[in-house]
Amino acid sequence: MVELKKVSRSFTEGNTKHAVLKNFDLKIEKGEIIILLGKSGSGKSTLLNIISGIDIPDEGEVTIAGKDITKLSEKDRTLVRRNKIGFIFQFFNLIPTLTVRENLQLPLELTNSDNQEERINTILSEVGLPERADSYPDKLSGGEQQRIAVARALIHNPDIILADEPTGNLDYETGLQIVDLLDRVVKQKGKTMIMVTHSKDVMGLADRVYSLREGKLTETKKDSVIE
Amino acid sequence: MNSLNKSSIRYLLKHPWQFGLSVLGIAMGVAIVVSIDIASYSSSKAFNLSLDAVAGKATHQITGNSDGIPDSFYRSLRKDKGIRNIAPVIESYVSIQDSGRRVFKLLGVDFFAERPFRDYFSETDSSAGDVFNKLFTKPNSIILSGENMKKLNLSPGDSVKVLINGKEKYLYIAGFIKENDNNRSALENLFITDIASAQELTEKKNNIDYIDVIINNESEEKIINSLLPDGFALQKSGSRSQTAEQMLDAFNINLTSLSLLALIVGLFLIYNTMTFSVIQRRILIGTLRSIGVTSGEISRLILKESLIIGIAGTIAGFAAAYFISKYLLIIISRTINDLYYVVSVREIYISPFIIIKGISLGVIATLLSALKPAKEASGVHPRSAMIRSEQESSIIKKIPRMTIAGILFIIAGAVTLIIPSKNIWLSYFGILPVITGFSLLTPLVIIIVEKIFSPVYKKLFGITGKMSSRSILQNISRTYIAIAALSLAVAATVGVGTMVSSFRSTVIDWLETRLNADVFISAPSLISRRNDAVLNEEILDKIKAIEEVKDYNFYREVEIFQDGKRYHLLASGLSKRSYKGFKFKEGNPEDAWKSFEEGEIFVSEPFAYRNDLSVGSKLVLKTDKGMREFRVAGVYYDYASDQGLITIQYRHFKEYWNAKGYSGISVFVKDDKAIGTVKDRIQSLDTGGQQLVVRTYKFLRDSSVEIFDRTFLVANVLQILSVIVAFIGILSSLMSLQLERKRELGILRANGLLPSQLFLMVNLQTLLMGLIAGLTALPLGNILAAILIYIINKRSFGWTMQFEILPGILAEALLLSLAAALLAGIYPAYKMSKTSPANALREE
Lengths: 227, 844
Ligand SMILES: Nc1ncnc2c1ncn2[C@@H]1O[C@H](COP(=O)(O)OP(=O)(O)OP(=O)(O)O)[C@@H](O)[C@H]1O
Ligand SMILES: [Mg+2]
Hints:
The complex is a heterodimer.
Chain A: E1 2-13, E2 16-28, E3 33-38, H1 44-52, E4 59-64, E5 67-68, H2 74-84, E6 85-88, H3 100-110, H4 116-126, H5 142-154, E7 160-164, H6 172-189, E8 192-196, H7 200-203, E9 208-213, E10 216-220, H8 222-226
Parallel strand pairs in A: 3-8, 3-9, 6-7, 7-8
Antiparallel strand pairs in A: 1-2, 1-4, 4-5, 9-10
Chain B: H1 3-14, H2 16-55, E1 60-63, E2 69-70, H3 71-80, E3 86-96, E4 102-109, H4 111-114, H5 128-137, E5 141-145, H6 146-151, E6 159-164, E7 167-177, H7 184-187, E8 190-194, H8 195-202, E9 207-208, E10 210-213, H9 218-227, E11 233-236, H10 237-279, H11 282-290, H12 295-339, H13 352-379, H14 382-386, H15 388-418, H16 424-474, H17 476-514, E12 519-522, H18 537-544, E13 549-562, E14 565-573, E15 584-586, H19 589-597, E16 601-604, H20 605-611, E17 618-623, E18 626-636, E19 646-649, H21 650-656, E20 664-669, H22 675-683, E21 693-696, H23 697-711, H24 713-740, H25 742-750, H26 755-797, H27 807-834, H28 837-842
Parallel strand pairs in B: 4-8, 5-7, 14-19, 16-18
Antiparallel strand pairs in B: 1-10, 1-11, 2-9, 3-4, 3-6, 3-10, 5-8, 6-7, 12-20, 12-21, 13-14, 13-20, 15-18, 16-19, 17-18
Magnesium ion binds at residues 44-45, 90, 164 of chain A.
């Protein structure tokens, strides 16, 4: 489903260049749930950006559903993202000029989905915010925004879900709700998910846990993390 | 540098586009105003220099009758009465056919009497004695500046063919004068000849034009005054140039109107720019406030920034003005030459006032316009500054108040404008509140248009369309300023355009009624709108004798200098047939013509306005028989002269004035088909060397319209410049607007919006903004046109014009604002659609 081969990504700021991902391999099968750990700044968000095609590696291949997206045109890359991927950003990234309902409608419109109204209402009650449908994002609390961001990532039924610390801004209780939601949607529907998180409660979901350190991935025992 | 300043400088540098466009917007505003100022100042300066050069050190001038001063009078003053500090002068214009019709002033002087007056002869070349010898012995010898000689490809001893009063003559180059810094501008346009040659060349037998005088005390003045016959006058030297300057004033008023409009547009842009740069940073400012920066520090920071932008813009503006004014000067001096007098303007002059005005506009206005946004930004509570929608909803809340304020402003402007007054500045002052009022109404218009277009856009373009129209409303604090600025700029072009076209069609209507003969004859004139050359009287007899001629008109134009004013008097020998060419503003036509035939006068509308005359008023004129009083029998519409004209019947004119010859003749042809024949016959008349310009009605009408168009060319140029300014303004606003949405657009891209969809969305939005601006510009533009027509022009010239709304201009305006908005949107749209979403997302 997702395969990265010899991926490298570095950033240059002024004269200094620092490598974030170094010669990186990763293979994820359909229906797998991967959890990614790593210190702040270790490159977790960068990795998710590369998988989603928002960012392009300096070197290497990124294969999503059989296509190397680094070789695609920007348009085709976008289409892959639009149809296959749901992204929950680290900083919600809701669109401030659209209401909650419209934020949710957007991916549906882009993918030409049917039953839009119904799906919006369903997912809104799933994330527990049916009464905020007509609010603008900046009127919501951080946790509420995050729940809408999760809903937006899931609503068009993508095959791959990328989640960048989806519970990072939430209280324990709400965090559990989100995890529960992801569990239901992802696990039961057999979706692939890559999630960055530090929350121990989520570890239980994972098929595999990786940590990212100095540009490299190492697989970690789930149990050792939960300890 | 403390870190606050650092952050502010870095902000400017991090947004080079916005910074650059701010500077550019200010620079353009400054450039337009300054370049108009420079161009009109330089042309009047050049004009004054050339007058001063001719007047030399004379303190006074003796002017004579309508046909000048007999040279016997001059000789008796000098010899019999022993008055020494006097010198005779003849002034005329000559044109050299072969050098692109360059026009020179021919100055006839008495070299023996000259020394005390004009000393530029000291610089004649080494063999000066020989030069003077030639000047006196060889007829029609002239001297000119070395530079002109080189330019005309002449050398001493050559002769050159010229046209003087419509007759071909040969001038002989006796020598040249070396230029130095003192005489360069004086000699710029001058041919100097001996008074006897001048009399021969201009056919002013035994006459001179005026006598220059140097008077040291009042008793000398008294003595001279006592020696003058009726109709002669002793006038201060400056008064001739003053009257000439009055002419220029009228012309400058039009330029001033334009530059003030440009100034207002410029001010608005600067305000636009500064408001934008502050508004954009509300979040940043909110963050600064929440970590303990005081509101005073924030204000100072923003003012410091605007100072940097203002200074940079002003410097760039002055640099641009230098080039723009060179170009404007070419157009302006051509208009002046068409209408008023011959002057060549090459130097650029700049006065302290122009510099001060430019700097105040660029720096002080920038600071002032940053004041309000700075205060607002620093006044908000740190947390709410960070919440964008709060800021926007506070604008929405303000809309009712803004609308009411807008209406009040418009009313205040209207009240200021209808105060009956001749004061032109009061009128200009009234425009400002009207414009401000309209800008305050913009948010309301945005809400209404958005309400209407949102569903349409949604239907046509889906959610992309809806987002693009919605975000105009959601960013209303920014969009309304951008829209108002574009709207104002477009309105200014509608206003000027409608004014010019209304004026134009009024003039054409008038020309068509007034020019009601078939063939028009005059001597070739060097100044197109005025006939300074005169035809001798036998020519009329010869024309009358042509078989196909049914009837004829003729007139003689004279200038009267009196009480520091210059009047144009037209003595017309009108056939009854042409009476219908006069449309009266005041006075019953029948009574008016009856009184006219009995010796009363008509005055044109501008003349009546300037001199507060109406039917029945009395006007005292300096005639060759002394001061005489005339009753005004009618006020007629006339657009030939902004100074105004006095018309008197030729028969009565001859009772008071000696002037001979006719300035123009027009004839009616018995059969329309014979017009060409009559024209040919007149052209082949034996006129004794006098060249005739024979024009048919159609040709004269068209060439008059052409001169009109040339006069307003400068208006067109300025119109284009202000569109450019507006365009830069709108470009910078839209660019800021879109760049500011970088993150939002990045999210959209990350969610799968195609680059092409993003491009479409941004363009749909700017298009709608252009539409709103265009829609508000139409009423505002027409109001501006009405102000220009009914108030500014009326108050400056006294002209009545028909207001004419041209659908073409309106459509053009709408297209203009759509195109400007679209063009301004394309780059940001393109840029945004190309930006990698990852970068857009990281941006804050
Ligand atoms: N566009 C960019 N330009 C420069 N440096 C970048 C850019 N994007 C990421 N980096 C750098 O790459 C490194 C990894 O960033 P990334 O956002 O992937 O970290 P992260 O693991 O997600 O951290 P966190 O847990 O704090 O979210 C950081 O050092 C960051 O500064
Ligand atoms: Mg991260």
